[in-house]
UniProtKB/TrEMBL annotation:
<dbReference type="InterPro" id="IPR011051">
    <property type="entry name" value="RmlC_Cupin_sf"/>
</dbReference>
<dbReference type="InterPro" id="IPR014710">
    <property type="entry name" value="RmlC-like_jellyroll"/>
</dbReference>
<protein>
    <recommendedName>
        <fullName>Cupin domain-containing protein</fullName>
    </recommendedName>
</protein>
Amino acid sequence: MRTARLSDMKRGWFIGDFTPSLYKTDACEVAVKKYVAGEHEAKHYHLAAEEYTVIISGEVKMFGNVYKAGDIIICERGDATDFTAITDAVNVVVKIPGAKNDKYVMEED
């Protein structure tokens, strides 16, 4: 048996082909992301990976829509969105496949 702490991971990512990682693989990436109200991530997209975001707590805005606990947002390849935490929020994010250098940041409108 092993244990680890999420706080020791980089921005919540704990499975994937990066360091640190609890399980190194390029098949997927998994994170638990914590945000404080008002945090924002720039509009971006992925060409190789699909990204699944599960809202565990709080409210967030993606694709111009508000999502809350229990919602699952599927970002298909090429879908572009920014991200804003409306309230403090916790999300689980899964990217399939785990694709290095597959985040393409766009200029804000």
